[in-house]
Q: What sequence folds into this?
């Protein structure tokens, strides 16, 4: 699937005497802002703006290139426990891993996403980007709230859930989500849960 500034190419290579015509399904608007400028001006990305500044990712998101930012909204940050959020925001390495897990290495418009597509993030992890009917999905969940906000250096999709990579989780959080949750309970009963957190 070929797109031009996130407009789908419907018919290509209509040759005319003075050039070539490609038919697309949208009017192409002028794009002037970088991804960083979109983050700075969008009210619903206030928490993300602070996180990006704290992790020194500003320069990357305003540099030349073609990236996809899966931008967690304020609502996405509010969904995770305050204690977990404060821990990640206070740990520069975990914060950088978290944000890099939301940045894809290439610009990916919604029109070009097909079911079962796996994309690599800047963190080196992968995300399953797909679609279910008209809805875009991430790791099988329809959590994309707003799609195809174009920037000069890529595209931004707003997501309403935070995608926390394993590298930004404590041992306790990882254990709770895995097959060793009973062992976690034993650590807690033995008064050793602080070692896992």
A:
């Amino acid at each position: 699937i070929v797109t031009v500034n996130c407009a789908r190419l419907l018919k290509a290579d209509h040759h005319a005497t003075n050039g070539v015509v490609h038919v697309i399904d949208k009017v192409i608007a002028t794009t002037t802002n970088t991804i960083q400028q979109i983050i700075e001006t969008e009210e619903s990305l206030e928490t993300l703006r602070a996180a990006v500044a704290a992790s020194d990712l500003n320069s990357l998101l305003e540099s030349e290139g073609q990236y996809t930012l899966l931008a967690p909204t304020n609502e996405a940050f509010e969904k995770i426990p305050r204690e977990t959020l404060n821990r990640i925001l206070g740990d520069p390495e975990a914060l950088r891993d978290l944000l890099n897990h939301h940045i894809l290495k290439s610009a990916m418009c919604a029109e070009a996403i097909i079911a079962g597509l796996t994309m690599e993030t800047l963190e080196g992890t992968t995300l399953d980007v797909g679609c279910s009917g008209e809805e875009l999905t991430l790791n099988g969940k329809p959590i994309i709230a707003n799609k195809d906000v174009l920037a000069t250096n890529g595209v931004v999709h707003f997501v309403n859930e935070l995608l926390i990579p394993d590298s930004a989780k404590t041992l306790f959080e990882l254990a709770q989500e895995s097959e060793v949750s009973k062992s976690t309970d034993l650590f807690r009963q033995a008064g050793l849960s602080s070692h896992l957190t």
